[in-house]
Amino acid sequence: MTTEQQSNGAERLCETLIVQGVDVCFANPGTSEMHFVAALDRRPDMRCVLGLSEGVVTGAADGYGRMADKPAATLLHLGPGLANGLANLHNAKRARTPVINVVGDHATYHLKFDAPLASDIDGLARPMSDWVGRATHPDKLPSEAADAWEAAVSMPGVATLILPADIAWNKAQGGSIKPRQRAALPPVEMAKIKAAAADLRQPGRTVLLLGGRALRAGTLQRIAAICAKTGAEFMAETFNARIERGQGRVPVRKLPYYVDPALARLRGVERIILVDARPPVAFFAYPDKPSLMNEEGSRITTLVGHHEDLADAIERLADEVGAAETAPLPGGGVKEPPAFDPGPLTADTACAIVAASLPDGAIVTDESVSSGRMFFEASYNAPAHDYMQLTGGSIGIGLPLATGAAVACPDRRVVCLQADGSAMYTVQALWTQARERLDVTTVILSNRRYAILENEMANVGVQDYGANARRMLTFDDPALDWISLARGHGVEAARAQTGAELADLLRSSFRRRGPFLVEAVI
């Protein structure tokens, strides 16, 4: 498009996003966004992906950003459209995923009339965004959009730009748009490097608690070398945006979800050093149990935060402790995945079969909640893969996360390990997978109940409960028909009730193009 053709604010916004390398827009637009839709229509270099609910849109942007390491845009309709997508923006914010939301608003002069869809968009956006801005003039949109991009990539995090309709449709001056450069992350102070090195040399147990970028393969290799040299331990946070793992990579264990096993894992640990991680806090409060899962008297310090140069900090720490360039893989290297039971399916055998069947280079999105807890252990020696999971606890992320990952990495098979209850929150993602011909294999772990809540009833001390409570924890009457649900969204599907059936269906799905869903009845 020539500058002469760029005639309004919407076109300037679109051009700025493309100049900054944002070339995917997940969208569910409405009337106030039509000028931006028209601008997108004139730019075939921007891929537009429709989601049939805003939770699909924002969850897909999260999956895309985690795998592409750059933001996608979302296009959302006014405050209610944004509100529909907030749950998965909460997850994206917790994952520190770069996302740029474009949220339409009424024309500036129309707001005073309090039309039915008017709302406090700024107030809605703020809790789930790291940056909120409002477009003020068509000529300022290139700068304002670049501010949103810079915020998304530098934190990294969720940036929300509110676009009033008249700012989108009013005439704008042309001219070339120069890309804004990404600012370098600040280095960690040398005093913190030396303090961490001193802690690592101390007798007793020291743990490096890892999150974020610390869980990429190259960085994990250096951290393993540091621990091999000093005798320290390392483990990942319970819920992580992305872990590069599998054969040929350093295996990392996660801090358990439940409080008692987590307390046991950290018992006797005298020092915890956070590496792009948060303190080990329990997901919920429980009667007579602590909120922090480290022992009283143990010390928590931060080596590097998410806004600092992690790679540089790890290299300097390795130099400070005299760590070797690489560390051998624990346990003597690669092992074969465990054998699985071909008989009737249980949650554990289903997880073992998925782990044993993964194709090389797969991307796994895990929202299996309670039924898939065994998968992480079973897949330590699976072929090399990326593992993404629910980060903020707001269910309904699995199917959209897989959708966005498949858009970001079209040459890799995405395997979505999905609980049936949470899948219903954003089941419309299956339609987007079908429309975009995405290579996603979804495994629904179908136990027809909220098993996690049954566990939580016991955790809060409720051992016996009756029909009223049970009706809020189960959905087997009527049972969800996942084959019909998938086919109704354009996705081919089949049901597996034995291990042999599940293994056969997985292998078949990996040989074909496009999405496929397997209901694993457990």
Automatic annotation (TrEMBL):
GO terms (molecular function) for this protein are: acetolactate synthase activity; flavin adenine dinucleotide binding; thiamine pyrophosphate binding
Superkingdom as given in the UniProt entry: Bacteria
* Swiss-Prot/TrEMBL GO biological process terms: small molecule metabolic process
Family matches, as SUPFAM superfamilies: Thiamin diphosphate-binding fold (THDP-binding) (SSF52518)
Q: Mind listing the UniProt keywords for this protein, alphabetically?
A: Thiamine pyrophosphate
Domain Thiamine pyrophosphate enzyme N-terminal TPP-binding: start-end pairs: 8-112
Q: Which InterPro entries match?
A: THDP-binding, Thiamin_PyroP_enz_TPP-bd_dom, TPP_enz, TPP_enzyme_TPP-bd
Q: In this protein, which residues make up the domain named Thiamine pyrophosphate enzyme TPP-binding? A: 381-519
Q: Which family does it belong to?
A: Belongs to the TPP enzyme family.
Protein name per its UniProtKB record: Acetolactate synthase large subunit
